[in-house]
Structure formats: C-alpha cells, structure tokens
Amino acid sequence: MLRCAAALVLAALTCFPQSITREQEERMLREALDGSSGGPEEFIRVVEEHLRQHPDSPRRAQIEAAILRAAIDAKDFSRVIRYGLKAAEAESADPALIEEVTRALLARAGGESAAKALALAQKAERQLRGREIRDSSPRAQARLQEENDAALARALLYQARAQGALGKFEEAIALARRSFEIQPTGDAARESARWCERVGKLQEAVRALAEAFVLNDSPSSGALRAQDRQRMRELYSRLHGSEKGLGDIVLAAHDYVAKLHEERIARLRAIDPNARLTDPLDFTLSALEGQPLRLSTLRGKVIVMDFWATWCGPCRVQKPLYDQVKKRFAGSDEVVFLAINTDEDRERVAPFVEENNWGRSVYFEDGLAGLLRVSSIPTTVVFGKDGQVFARFNGFVPDKFVEMLTARIQAALQHTADVPRPIGQ
C-alpha cells in the first residue's frame, strides 16, 4: 500500500508549470522520501511537508489521495477523516472509501462524528442494496454477491454503533440483529449484546453473547470467546442465581447460527449450484449448449476431463491427439470425455469452436478448475470409478500423449481400491 502511495505521488508530479521545474520538485520529494524511515507515518509527514512548501501544486488532489491511502494503512483515523470525508460524502463515492471513513468516524467520541458515520453507513447500505450484480460466470456472480452481502452486513453494523453512540439503543439492537442475520459474525452479536445490556434486556444479551461464543470467527477469537463466555456467565447468573440451563442457551445459539449458515449457502447456490462444495463430482457444470451437467450422474464411470481455453496455443496442438484417444474408447459406456472450458470471457467460446470445428459439446469449469488446482492449460484429469482423481496430465508430451492417456484410462477401468493410483504424468 505504501509503495503504491509513493508511486502515485511521484507520478502526479508530471507535466505542469510552476516556480520550480517538474524535475526539481520530483527530485526534492524523492530525496525526502529516500531519507525517511519508510513507514506510513513518516511518508505522511514528508508528503504533507512537501504540500506545505508547494501549496499550489496542480496535482494536489492526487497527492492527497496518496496521503489518504497511507493514513488508512497506518490507521490514522484523524487523517482518514481529514482527507477522505469530502470524497466519501460525494454522490459517486467508492464504497470501500465510505467504509474506511465510517470506521474512522466511529473511532472518535462525540455525537457529531456518530451522526456523520450514521449518514455514511446509510449511504453505503443504499448503494449496496441498489447494486446490480451480473457476471457471465455463476461462480463469479456468487462470489460478488457474497462480497456484497458481507459489505451490507458491515454497513448495518456501523449504523448500529452510530445509533448506540447517539443514544438510540433500540435502533442499535435492531440494526445489529439485521447485520447478524445477513452474515453471522461475532462483532454483530457483541454489538447486539452491548446495547441489550444497556437497556436492561439481559436475557437477550446472554443469547447474543452465546451466538458470539459459538462463532469463533476471527483471528483473535480465542481471547474474545473467553470474554464472551465470562460475560455471558455473569449476566445469566445475575438473572437466574446460577449457571443451570446456560448450556441449553449455548446449544440453541449453535443451532441458530447453523441455520443461518445453511440459509446463506442456499441463497448462494440459487446463483451458483457449486457454492462451497468440496467434492468435484458434486459439481454441476453449465453447458455451451443444452442443459447443465450434474457430475454426480457420472459416478461409477471413468471420467476424463480436458481443461482448455480459446487463448491456449498448446490446446490446439493437443486437441487432435485427445480426439484420437476418444475414438479408442468410443464403444465403451464406462468412459466419459468432457471438454471443460476455462475462459473468463465465455462469449469467445461459441465463435471459437465453430471456426475450428471443435463441436459444441463443451462445458464451463464453474469453479471446478479452482477446486482441482488446475494452474496451467491444458490439463487433463482422469477420475476413477470410485470418484477419486486417478491421474492427471499438466500439459502434455505430443509424441507420447495418446499412448500415455490411453494407458491411464485402461488402468482406471481395471483399478481396485487396494492398488495405488499413478496420479502424476
């Protein structure tokens, strides 16, 4: 982040007339940066001093943007507000910037900062709810939706903190619960517990702390869970005179969090049927033409997956060799060959297969390549009848590929569980 900010500053000092030349100013700033300690705080000091010396720089806006990036990196909330508030309040503000400035405002005490934070968080919520998420890949669309939901949950959480700071405790509780229902997090549960306790709703505070306790969702969760547990026990004992029955509340919290998680996965799978799957043969692959293919329907067969792309030169060389292997097993209903495209731009695929006469029996990888760690194209993966990877070819040797792949398929057909798989090429 800091290197990026420094590069932006130096790049900004180009092509403008002033009392000293561009080269002189750039040299002065570079010398000052080279002589600094290199940390974000020192970077900010040097660049702010430069602006004091050259207040009329035509590139002042770009330089201040670099200071803002460094301030975010340094968690310098005062400067994040100073350099970022005006931009965050603009109609076309970037959602990530709005979030950073909101967090900085919430770190300050006082009603004025809380009111500004609330307005920004509400603006972020409107942006996120109005965002239209479209992508040619269901996998990418589901990922974008998940990111949008997470950002929306944070926007609601920040609203809860701001409302609580403004003394509107019931509103804070409701917002924290809405955040939790969109994305269950320990922060949202603790925020709910905080304001429930403030208004005397101790039973609700206990339940919220139980939810935070069972989540265990942050790097510092060990210490936080210990605090959640201790406070939960204190509040419950105050209400009931002992801890008898507290375990039932923790179990109920666990079940509720699991239910919310399942509902969230169901929403994602309505977009991408492969969301959060870990077994390759549970995947469903969309097709260039026709119905999607559920790989689970192929269990019990040997499956040969050819991962390729339109931009891949070696794939064009491998294709006729791969077709030779397919012909050798054309009479077997125990072997299935799948052409799996990995292009990001799917619009290129149909014209490509038409132009090259490759046929339209093509499926899209829909996240399968990532699960199988396909890092180079072409890659061929052979699944045995037991649904496990039997062999894979990362690339190919042209004069050996046909015989090697044929041998692997024949071995997979004859494979039994007590025989080791070859896996590698």
How would you sum up this structure, described in words?
The chain is α/β, with parallel strands linked by helices and about 425 residues long. Among the domains are: about 135-275, Serine Threonine Protein Phosphatase 5, Tetratricopeptide repeat (Alpha Horseshoe); about 280-415, 3-Layer(aba) Sandwich (Glutaredoxin), CATH 3.40.30. Helices cover about 60% and strands about 10% of the residues. It is built from 17 helices and seven strands. The protein has helices spanning about 1-10, 20-35, 40-55, 60-75, 75-90, 95-105, 110-130, 140-165, 170-180, 185-200, 200-215, 220-240, 245-270, 315-330, 350-355, 370, 400-415, and strands at about 285, 295, 300-310, 335-340, 360-365, 380-385, 390-395. It has a five-stranded mixed beta sheet, with helices on one face. The chain has a two-stranded antiparallel sheet with strand order 1-2. β3, α14 (about 315-330) and β4 form a beta-alpha-beta unit. α1 (about 1-10) packs antiparallel against α4. It is globular, with a radius of gyration of 29 Å.
Morphology call: globular
How many DSSP helices? 17
Q: Strand content of the residues, in percent?
A: 5-15%
- What is the tally of beta strands? 7
The helix fraction, in percent, is: 55-70%
Largest sheet: 5 strands, mixed
CATH class of the domain at 134-276: Mainly Alpha
CATH structural fold name of the domain at 134-276: Serine Threonine Protein Phosphatase 5, Tetratricopeptide repeat
Q: Mean pLDDT score, rounded?
A: 88
As residue ranges, the low-confidence spans are 8-18
Radius of gyration: 29 Å
What is the H/E string? HHHHHHHHHHHHHEEEHEHEHEEH
